[in-house]
Design brief:
Length: about 450
């Protein structure tokens, strides 16, 4: 039985938070901790929070409350809260007052100092609160053996966002755009490939802004993709999230010519109405967005297109909403991630006076989801009978006898198979289409 202290991280929110949790786990491994699969059994627990929507905040605070009951029985337990929620102005101090059982409350900009802060908090009688207004340095990105065999891995290439969309809290809690040096990213990818990783997903609040803050390097997002294409042993490259304003023709051409970069384009539109795009401060109108879609499809006719859409943004009329429905019908996205507008404290839109009633938002969301689900199913049904190469990620959590993986276009594919196929490319014949997944069988 190991005598090493144990740690667990509870993660909410986006892929960036998942990657931050991996970095914290690697730091903890360097500090002598080992992974514990159950939070309630761990000596140290960090809750990595999200604040993009109120429901995410409520879940994180609820988990902190649940852990208090465990700490009441085991006072030596260390509990910390990090992520975007405490990074909001004044929120960290408020949380520390409401939850004095927390040892540490730390913002997103303090990740590089996590080991130092954790040690300080472990030796403090009061909650340690550390919220830097801006990151003074990017984390060193240590890479220990994160629990479990990994076929795919997140690689952060850029942090922060310089856009100021009126609904979005991210620029306020993640700070300005800071790109990592090209050599550091390539080195990390090579290390991951050496650990058995075959696919990397490049992360950033706005990945295609990569390099803009480092003009002295002369490297764009397209240049980064071309360099990673050369990494031996790396099979696939994905990336998220893009901003339509920054998606250049060079990036499209690079992806079209690549054998490794997925032909999945996630291009958040947010609305199909120019009036809403202006109020959101998205920096483009719908004609420019559609031109980007047309250029992508001209270069890669079978590209997979997905998007984000917000319904019920302040001032959205029925006519504005109908234009969003029209956009979905015209583009025929493979999938859409649709959300009701949720006011975020500290953003301009939260103070707009013409908020849309909840009942109207719910009705609009239900209708938009119905339209998109119909289109998604129709597009997946057209793939039935094809054979695709699936990078197997492992057994399905719900059905261990069924393997799950992704095709090159990022579609999730399930098929019966031996777990020994994990980490390999398997030809799979697609047999059945669902809205979000495809079912198949291993092709001979």
């Amino acid at each position: 039985m190991s005598l090493r202290p144990t740690a667990h991280i509870v993660t909410y929110g986006c892929q960036m938070n998942e990657n931050d949790s991996e970095v914290m786990l690697a730091y903890l491994e360097e500090m002598g901790y080992e992974w514990c699969p159950v939070a309630e059994d761990a000596d140290l627990v960090m809750v990595n929070s999200c604040c993009v929507r109120k429901s995410a905040e409520d879940r994180a605070l609820g988990r902190v409350g649940e852990l208090k009951r465990v700490k009441d029985q085991r006072p030596s337990m260390f509990i910390g809260l990090t992520g975007c929620m405490p990074q909001q102005p004044g929120r960290a101090e408020e949380i520390a007052r409401r939850a004095p059982h927390l040892n540490l409350v730390m913002g997103t900009h303090n990740l590089a100092r996590f080991p130092e802060l954790a040690l300080q908090a472990a030796n403090s009688a009061a909650t340690v609160v550390e919220i830097a207004p801006e990151p003074d340095q990017l984390p060193a990105f240590p890479r220990g053996q994160v629990p479990g065999a990994r076929v795919s891995a997140w690689v952060t290439i850029l942090r922060g966002c310089d856009k100021r969309c009126t609904y979005c809290i991210v620029p306020y809690v993640r700070g300005r755009e800071m790109s990592r040096p090209l050599g550091e990213i390539v080195s990390e990818v090579q290390t991951l490939v050496g650990q058995g990783v075959r696919e990397v997903s490049l992360l950033g609040q706005n990945v295609n802004a990569y390099g803009k803050d480092r003009p002295q390097d002369g490297v764009t997002f397209g240049g980064l993709l071309r360099r990673l294409e050369e990494v031996d042993g790396l099979w696939r490259i994905r990336y998220t999230t893009s901003h339509p304003r920054d998606f250049t023709q060079d990036m499209i051409d690079t992806i079209a010519a690549s054998k490794k970069v997925s032909d999945h384009f996630h291009l958040p539109a947010q609305s199909g109405a120019n009036a809403m795009l202006k109020r959101m401060a998205r920096g483009y109108l719908i004609d420019r967005y559609l031109d980007l879609i047309h250029r992508v499809r001209a270069a890669i006719p079978e590209a997979t297109l997905t998007t984000d859409l917000i319904v019920g943004f302040p001032g959205e009329s029925e006519a504005d909403f109908e234009q969003t429905v029209q956009l979905v019908e015209e583009v025929r996205f493979d999938r859409s991630y649709m959300f009701m507008y949720s006011p975020r404290r500290g953003t301009p839109a939260a103070d707009f006076l013409d908020q849309v009633p909840l009942a109207v938002k719910q009705q609009r969301l239900a209708r938009l989801m119905e339209v998109q689900d119909r289109i998604s199913l129709e597009k997946n049904q057209r793939l039935v009978g094809r054979t695709v190469q699936v990078l197997v990620e492992g057994p399905s959590p719900k059905r261990p006898e069924v393997l799950t993986g992704r095709a090159f276009d990022n579609r999730t594919v399930l098929f019966p198979g031996d777990v020994a196929l994990t980490g390999t490319l398997v030809p799979v014949r697609l047999l059945t289409a669902h809205t979000w997944t495809m079912l198949g069988e291993q092709a001979s």
